[in-house]
Amino acid sequence: MVVVFATNGEHGEVPDDLAPGEGLLERRRAEGERSAAALGVSRVEWLGYSDSGMTGWAQNTHPGSFHQADVRDAGLRLAALLDRENADIVVGYDWHGGYGHPDHIKVHHVVHEAARLAARAPRVLESTMNRDLVRQLYRIALEAGTAEDAFDPDAPMDDGSPLGTPEAEITWQVDVSAYLPQRRAALEAHRSQKTDIEGFLRMPPEIFAALFAAEHYIEPGAPAGMTRGWPFAV
Q1: How far, in Å, CA of 75 to CA of 115, rounded?
Q2: Is the pLDDT of residue 234 over 60?
Q3: In what helix (H) or strand (E) does residue 187 lie, and over which residues does it extend?
Q4: Do the Cβ atoms of 74 and 128 come closer than 8 Å?
Q5: Cα separation of 119 and 87, whole Å?
Q6: What is the per-residue pLDDT across 206-228, written as a single tens digit (0 to 9) for each?
């Protein structure tokens, strides 16, 4: 298994513990490597584009940003990696990147282009969040007093769309509860993204387990209805 980072992530939060001469780019790359190691990924690859920032940021228009990249050119870069690995499956994001992040949305388009250009034409799975499940878990957390009433998965996210995807439009629900320690370690590796990561890591163990015990994927062209199973052996 190979993980491919499209950008260097250099426009996120700047941690206050950067070493002399260390930039955010170097920190984020090192975090990516540690996170992949925690998950047992065999290798990390980098497409080398600049982070585009969030919607409306000035970085969206920078010539070297992933947001500005030509989809075919980026698709060819990724397709070359797919061919080198003789990949059966490539995993990207859903159509709006889960919550509207410009680079996540670009990944969606580039992954589909790469799959089209690759010699083997791998299956495409689109990682998403189950909006109905998130809503249910959030209400449970509110009732238990472990969450603040300040989050609504049905409210507009970064691109104006709600979070993730309704369950009726999801193809696969994958039980990854056996890998919760690895998932937590992978999150801990990304400590520079303090606002998001610290929020996840502060969750009570039972809430963390409920939120991260399953992965959800859309498989374009698959029959309607969500299957609870393992899509990687089909």
Answers
A1: 8
A2: no
A3: helix 180-188
A4: no
A5: 10
A6: 888 988 999 999 999 999 999 99
- C-alpha to C-alpha distance for 216 and 151, rounded to whole angstroms: 21
Measure the CA–CA gap between 97 and 114, rounded to whole angstroms: 17
Q: Where are the beta strands (DSSP E) in the chain?
A: 2-7, 43-49, 89-93, 123-128, 172-175, 214-218, 227-228
Question: Tokens 């003789």 correspond to what residue?
Answer: 86
The 10s digit of each residue's pLDDT in 21-59 is 888 899 999 999 999 999 999 999 999 999 998 899 899
CB burial of 22-37 (b: ≥16 within 10 Å; e: otherwise) equals: eebeebbbebbbbbbe
pTM summary value: 0.93
- CATH superfamily for 2-233 is LmbE-like (3.40.50.10320)
Cα(122)–Cα(116) distance, integer angstroms: 8
Query: Which of 133, 154, 135 has its CA nearest to residue 143?
Result: 135
| Residue at token pair 């199973």 | 229
Question: How are strands ordered across the β-sheet holding 227-228?
Answer: 89-93, 123-128, 214-218, 172-175, 227-228
| CB of 7 closer than 8 Å to CB of 52 | yes
Residue in the structure block whose two tokens are 């955010």? 24
Which H or E run contains 35? helix 24-39
